[in-house]
Amino acid sequence: MNESAGHPISFGNHWLKTVLVSALVSLSIHLVCINVPRNPSEVICTYHLPSTAKRLLSCTTTSPVPQLPARRGNVFVVEDPIRLHHWQLDEDGDLSTDKRNKGETVPHSITYVPEKKKWTDSEARAALQAAARSRKHGDHKKAQVIIEHAMNLAPEHPDVLTEYGIFVETVRHDVVLAENMYRRALGYNPRRAKTLPLVEEIDNKMLQEIHRKHKYFLQIPRKNPALRRAMQESYFQYVYHTVALEGNTMSLVETRSVLETKMVVNGKSVIEHNEILGMDAALRYLNRSLVHVGKLTLNDILSIHRRVLGFVDPIAAGQLRTTQVFVGSFTPTGPENVASDMFQMLEWLNDEETLQIDPVELAALAHYKLVYIHPFVDGNGRTARLLMNLILMQAGFPPVIIPVEERLTYYKCLQEANQGDLRPFIRFIAKLTDNTLQSYINSASTCEAVECSRSISTPTIVT
User: Fold this and answer.
1) For residue 313, which phi and psi values (nearest 5 degrees)?
2) What are the phi and psi torsion angles at 89 (to 5°)?
3) I need a surface site. Which of 87, 182, 346, 415 has the fewest CB within 10 A?
4) Separation of alpha carbons 305 and 318, rounded Å
5) How big is the CA angle at 275 (ends 270 and 276), to the nearest 5 degrees?
């Protein structure tokens, strides 16, 4: 009787121990997941865990990437003029003609530790407030001493540069030096809103006109036949002009023939053919994938470049450079700093304050920042122009074409930006954006009168 009565007690103790051990294991896993700062399941899944624990963590061979909402409400999608062909991208996003890229690791593990500042933001703000108070109270001598001390303390702080610019403009009446200070502040922090009043007024009027046209453009039905034809033609125009800027000698007709028929053009090099195919692949990737993504990552930039250069140089495609390059008289950042500079750029690009910048300005600044870093051995300009248009498309703008006829102006504005003045380049991109919108509006106005009157009323466009 005693033995038979002892069996259920022993079984109950064993069951209770099993429950307690399972609860402790689950609690431990939960605590570890909480304390892992980023992608905890990816980190834990690399360890040898029991199958039960892996099921709890939902460990899989490939972790799904969450799709973030687009940055802006209206997203522009390029009208695809031709269907997908065998040389195009497969479902995994790799180039079907370049299997060497498959399984390629992307440097997600690269970390960037910023250098310690010689000054703190609180010190800079305190000096700025003291200088501003002295200037406003008319104690210009004291204001000069304080602001010059702040300049010595933090010569690259955008607020210090701006306050010094205000001081020399209003007290010394040295507009040239003030302009230089504003320009430097804009270079160190492009989100700065302060510039010379006259310049700011001119730029604001230009941007207001662009957004007026943009608002009208968004009202045009996407089924408008004339607009669809213009979008399709713009696709060929974009591919032609962006490769022509890099020296490709294919004409627009030849470029269109390569994309539509996949036939070889006599007298043209294999590289020129592959440049066209690569640009087509990259533009499709933007149109089908990245335009709907919120925050951009280094992998996104590398994926764009992998398509741009994939048919020309599969080994260098999608890889950050490891050697020093030179662009005329300009020397980009050293190879040892490329990764950290790219992370800094992307951190800036995804910052909430940065996203408050006008999308036209932001697109131009992102373009310049990428070519300034020059992260790749080749294909930097094409990748930068795609990044610029990705930002515009996410904001509902059509892609902007930089005509090959504007090549000298384009590079001159970039050179001026390298010297510290980014505004000519921003104005150049703004002008092209305005021209692009006007072109689409003019094209849409050729539709049948009945259809146009049914959709929207045609405003008077000031050119």
Assistant:
1) -140, 85
2) -75, 145
3) 87
4) 5
5) 100
| Tokens linked to 204 | 């604001």
Q: Report the alpha-carbon distance of residue 209 to residue 459 in Å, rounded.
A: 13
From the centroid of its chain, how far is CA 246? Answer: 21
- How many CB atoms within 10 Å of residue 455? 15
pTM for this entry: 0.62
* Collapsed DSSP state (helix, strand, coil) of residue 291: helix
Tokens of 168: 């020399």
- Output the pLDDT for position 80: 58
In the block, which residue shows the tokens 């490891």? 322
Secondary structure tally for the chain: helices H, strands E: 18, 0
Residue type at 277 in one-letter notation: L
Contact 57, 49 (CB under 8 A): yes
pLDDT at 201: 62
Amino acid present at 123: E
Buried b (16+ CB within 10 A) or exposed e, 380-417: bbbbbbbbbbbbbbbbbbbbbbbebebeeebeebbbbb
Please check whether residue 301 is in contact with residue 341, taking contact to mean a CB–CB distance below 8 angstroms: no
- How confident is the model at residue 3, as a pLDDT? 44
Q: Which amino acid is located at 299 in the chain?
A: N
Residues of the chain above pLDDT 90, percent: 38
Tokens of 301: 């930039």
> What is residue 323's three-state secondary structure?
coil
For residues 199 and 17, what is the distance between their CA atoms, to the nearest angstrom? Answer: 76
Q: Does the annotation count 367 as an active-site position?
A: no
Do residues 388 and 361 touch, judged by C-beta distance below 8 A?
Answer: no
Distance CA 253, CA 383 (A): 23
The catalytic position among 241, 273, 305, 374 is 374
Single out the residue of 391, 278, 298 nearest to residue 338, CA to CA.
Answer: 298
299, 108 contact by CB (below 8 A): yes
Q: Is 300 in contact with 290 (CB distance < 8 Å)?
A: yes
329-355 burial string, b = 16+ CB within 10 Å, else e? eeebbeeeebbbbbbebbebbeeeebb
Positions at the binding site for ATP: 378-385, 410-411, 418
Cite the beta strand spans of 369-428 per DSSP E.
none
Annotation: binding site:
378-385, 410-411, 418
Task: Characterise 87 by phi-psi region: left (phi > 0), alpha (psi -120 to 50), beta (else).
Answer: alpha
Which tokens is 306 given?
A: 């992998």
Please say whether the beta carbons of 234 and 401 come within 8 A: yes
pLDDT for 33 equals: 52
